Amino acid sequence: MVGMENKKLRIAVVVHHFDPDSDGVSISAHRLISHLSDRFEVHLIAGAFASDQLDLIKSDFRTEKKGNFFLHSVFVAPDDGSSQYEWGLDNLFFAISSLHRKYSFDLIHAYFLVPTGYVSVLAGKILKIPVLVSVRGSDVARNVFVATRFPWVLWTLQNADFLTFVNPELREIGNVIAPVLDKSAVIPNSGFMEHLPVKPRQRGKKISIGYVGDVHRKKGFVYLIEALSELKRFPFELQVTGRINAEEKKSYEKLLAKTGLSKRIRFFDPVPRKKIHEKYNDCDVLVVPSTREGCPNVVLDGMLFGKLIVSTRIPGVMQVLEDQTEGLLANPRDSESLRMVFEKVFADPKLIDRLGSAAMKRVRSFHPKQETKQYEEIYLRLTKNK
């Protein structure tokens, strides 16, 4: 084994795809890794899609040092149901096993039940390594309705040594599927950005609404458009920054033209995380109209920038801010409820500064040190006999 003289605990963190510039799970994993103490040696085993990493097709994985951790890139394929996807999962399993033979991991920490949790628990059982699985936003809620995935969800919940959930509701759903209360904990995301150039915005005649993140049905974008279409008598603009499927964009453009909002909305391509502050600084209100979420990083980011958060009343948001005190919440999948919230803001713009300031104070209680401490305690508990 390599480095047996080193007494640090070796942790293998597994994610299906690693893009810390825009992917929520990658951001959360990278934040945790960056704050772990020097008592741990971290190896991030991360999938890389073939279209971006063609050189990986000729090798099983590629290793490089990234700051305080080792990054092992593994060829995988997007979740499109193809044989390539299955081959990618086999590669991920092979990489975990091969890297364990070289580094002798003490613990595997997988993000997401499916597919990484399933693959990691399977590998952990064979290699006799404890496995922690972190259940994220749409993880359980999405896969329980897919017949081919439900067995993976059930088996992973039953066989993981410990599980963390980003909000209480996800834990309750998991416990309905398989009893997990005695081997799980709720750990929400923390609020943190490496550089925080917060610039007070000089509000103009128009209230600027920011939307940051992917644009698709689960994110509730249609409900947002329907709500704003009833408020054209007020001066506002909507800036949308994120990825959007080309076909869906055509549908949204038709909807915008139909509702007369085309000139009120601007679409921007995703920006790197190191530049995302520019988008937060450029808006008065940050809107998150999702139909479901785990514990959205974008909400915590917005709170760090002192923005008024207008979101839907979903567990992942309700655990980090209080309605009417640190933000404003509407019912999910309810454009009329969302319209009423925005009408309240437009009628009383002073809410923007008052609730935004309260949100900035509240988010300080979700510090990365607290999140990291909880994970380190779990790591030590699962490896206490090593």
TrEMBL record:
Domain Glycosyltransferase subfamily 4-like N-terminal: start-end pairs: 23-189
Top-rank taxon: Archaea
Location of the Glycosyl transferase family domain: 199-361
Gene Ontology molecular-function annotations: glycosyltransferase activity
Pfam families reported in the protein's UniProt record: Glyco_transf_4 (PF13439), Glycos_transf_1 (PF00534)
Protein name per UniProt: Glycosyltransferase family 4 protein
